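Dataset card, provenance and construction

Sequences and ligand SMILES were collected as paired inputs. For each pair, a complete structure of the chain with the small molecule in place was predicted and serialized as structure tokens. The example below shows a pair involving NAP. Curators did not alter the output after generation; any descriptive sentences attached to a record were derived from the structure itself.
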Amino acid sequence: VSRNNLKVVLASRPAGAVGESNFRFVEAPVADPREGELLVRVDWLSLDPYMRGRMNEGKSYAARVELGEVMVGGAVGTVVASRHPKFAEGEKVLGAFGWQRYAVSDGQGLMRLPDPRLPDTVWLGAAGMPGVTAWMGLRLIGEPKAGETVVVSAASGAVGSVAGQLARIAGCRAVGIAGGRAKCDYAVKELGFDACIDYKAGPIDGPLKAAAPSGVDVCFENVGGEILDAVLRRVNPGARVALCGLISGYDGADIPIRNVFLLLVNRVRLQGFIVSDRMDLWPGAMTELAGHVAAGRIKYRESIAQGLESAPRAFIGMLKGENFGKQLVKVS
Ligand SMILES: NC(=O)c1ccc[n+]([C@@H]2O[C@H](COP(=O)([O-])OP(=O)(O)OC[C@H]3O[C@@H](n4cnc5c(N)ncnc54)[C@H](OP(=O)(O)O)[C@@H]3O)[C@@H](O)[C@H]2O)c1
């Protein structure tokens, strides 16, 4: 069968906000897999904030994408041809297939979908990389104890939604921060957060004081800047900050932490972490998260863009908060 591939490659590096002109679509024939390889048709592509860092010239925590190269990305696909001993035609797989319709793989880093009873997309969201990120930040750094207050920024998003629900499962008070009334209502009514503050409605200090009357014990930080500073004004002695992301600075804005003094006097532990540093913890975390999803203890929501052609626009929108829950692209 002759198939045509469509890929999204990095055309230029963004200066500030990403634009559609930073991407280019390239069509190319699909190569047949060689001995030891398999060909995957990409069904679902995950769009994630870390991809913004890969577009920059300098090194982030992972290698940059070179100009003219396919944009990196986790995806779920179907094996359409295999000369690999471990994967058979028709199987669904999870891997770093990138922003394209077809990918040839040597099987490295590929995984069969762990549980066919759950929707395919859950492995890109609540039981996939974002969920594992929430799990790791809380378990390794946040260490929430029952009765404590956990604040989560970007609370309705892929990572934040799971972080808040895990905090609730641990018996904590979960306070979200999100952009807009709809996202906050969703966090409280659907996800079970005890409160959620709309940072777009005005300064968050007053609402945060009301929502976290006993102060903040754990901060699961996805945003940085003003939001982190406001949370630091409410930290309790011995608080932990799991520094997961700083999305308010990904376009290059300076986002200083002003309340450093409060870290000192409160003996706060602030630690950054990268989910890919502990691949050993992924299988157990994924199993646990999938169990929570299957039992209805972890709920999630998805924003689905239709067709690979819509990936750049959806990615740009996600960085601006136009997504509501996990941002995906339905590729085929
Ligand atoms: N450390 C790791 O290993 C790791 C792994 C995965 C993800 N992360 C980080 O986790 C964070 C969340 O990622 P995600 O995949 O779950 O994305 P997401 O929350 O589903 O989507 C991004 C959200 O960020 C919020 N946002 C964007 N710009 C903002 C700004 N200037 N101020 C406040 N909020 C802003 C928007 O929500 P609102 O509409 O609510 O503003 C937007 O919907 C990101 O910082 C990401 O880099 C880290």
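Derived descriptions for this record:
The longest strand covers residues 38-46.
Residues 129-142 form the longest helix (14 residues).
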